[in-house]
Amino acid sequence: MVKPKTVKIKKAEPVAEKIAETILPPPVEKEMDDAMPEDFPLEKDIASKPDRYFEAVGRRKTAVARVRLFTRGDKQFLVNGKPYQEYFSLAQDQQTATASMRKMKCLDKFKVTVIVKGGGRNAQAEAVRHGTARVLVDFNNNFKKRLRKVGYLTRDPRMRERKKFGLKRARKAPQWAKR
Q1: Distance CA 40, CA 48 (A)
Q2: pLDDT in tens, 33-61
Q3: Among 60, 140, 136, 72, which Cα is nearest to 99's?
Q4: What is the pTM of this model?
Q5: What's the Cα-to-Cα distance from 15 to each of 8, 19, 20, 139, rounded to whole Å?
Q6: CATH number given to 53-150
Q7: Which of 6, 105, 143, 163 has the fewest Cβ atoms surrounding its Cβ within 10 A?
Q8: CA distance 89 to 97
Q9: Is the distance from CB of 64 to CB of 116 less than 8 angstroms?
């Protein structure tokens, strides 16, 4: 019977500890007796937090509008960082975009910021109207009945029909010849 040889291996733990001491800072232990003033927020820090807001999403065709309604701040209506009169150049689109706010007589009572993407200008204006109506209902549920009656809370489901193969568009076919 052959005895297996025992080999002594030097432990690498002391080397690893020395490396860790040089690389890592020593752990800091804090107790509540050592509480520093920076551990507790001041009143001005609490006041500098972002304002509370109500948020809703409005859609029309492929346009999507994310609407935020702030109860505090400047009383303005911004669409993609611009005043709505500047963003929607046509008066009809301006009327459409602010219709739900005007219906509830809230146009000059809140700060409203909208981020709208996709679609054309008309679809974007209708998406903004849908989003502002939804956010007003989130703010005050009593607005729901009036906004529903006018039709501003209803999502218009009409979308562009897809193109089919063998056709030029969704339904337009190439010219047919008998012979």
Answers
A1: 15
A2: 555 556 555 555 555 566 789 999 999 99
A3: 136
A4: 0.70
A5: 17, 6, 9, 63
A6: 3.30.230.10
A7: 6
A8: 11
A9: yes
